[in-house]
């Protein structure tokens, strides 16, 4: 029997993701992968999957899905408002970060994220997805990944591997960090910027603009003065790099960042604060705090200890 979810509404930027496609940046293919790694892994833990199993990521508004076939154990993680609509039309509000069972004809209506950007939808046994170079992450700009490298479309069918049998539901409590301070380390070209701009970068608040997506986050705030050169020879880029183009307004490169870049980098977001950063909505304010390698490594150990 075919078991699948029918997409009645695709939502905003709904794609399949896992932890990323690594080892190909020298070929111009970025790792990509889920934006909020902790929320992604929690969605899989809730349904008993390995944490790296592919899941559905959505931004702001998720999809409306109808189950066709056998029952399924599923979970939605993040700060998400959603409803479960039974086959007979009864509607109840769902609880995020808690697994639940849906049956043939039931609908899941993921209405919105709450004071955040990304949420995740996982299913026991995983979705039937074709790996590309060892990953099911979708990189839409390059058309790489499952679903022909595209976002979800209306009327599509999302097939999954197993029907629910005797699995128990589970709940995981998450303490979402609402702090607006983002810790960074100095970038390779930190010394390109004037002393005043170096100080301003850590003293001033920045506003997250609407020009933000999976590729990058453009900030608005105090203009940073580059006293050396606004361009450098293109070099490899990491997730979380903070570039400063000629207008002096920082751009934070996110999961779908280009593999090389030619703008000076003033800083780099530490891994432990990346999830918190990407969940900040446009219009939010953030402030940067400089830390050294030892602090970043200790924070990373605390971060991975949550998985």
**CATH architect. name of the largest domain:** Sandwich
Strand content: 25-35%
Shape: elongated
Alpha carbon gyration radius: 20 Å
Using the coordinates shown, work out and report the CATH topology of the largest domain.
Answer: Jelly Rolls
CATH class of the largest domain, please? Mainly Beta
Q: What characterizes the major β-sheet?
A: 7 strands, mixed, barrel
Order of helices and strands: EEHEEEEEEEEEEHEEEEEEEHEH
Give the strand order of the largest sheet, numbering strands 1, 2, ... along the chain. Answer: 12-19-16-17-14-13-20
Q: Based on the structure, what is the oligomeric state of the protein chains?
A: single chain
Secondary structure: number of strands: 20
Any low-confidence stretches, pLDDT <50, length ≥5?
none
Mean pLDDT: 94
Q: Which class best fits the helix and strand makeup? A: alpha+beta
N- to C-terminal separation?
34 Å
- Number of DSSP helical runs: 4
Instruction: Give the count of structural domains.
Output: 2
Helix proportion: 10-25%
Report on this model:
- By secondary structure, this protein is of the alpha+beta class.
- The chain folds into two domains: 4-159, Jelly Rolls (Sandwich), CATH 2.60.120; 181-304, Cyclophilin.
- 13% of the residues lie in helices and 30% in strands.
- It is built from four helices and 20 strands.
- A seven-stranded mixed beta barrel has the order 12-19-16-17-14-13-20. Strands 7-6-9-4-1-11 form a six-stranded antiparallel β-sheet, with no helix packed on it. Strands 2-3-10-5-8 form a five-stranded antiparallel β-sheet, covered by helices on one side.
- The longest helix is centred in the C-terminal third of the chain and has 12 residues, at 293-304.
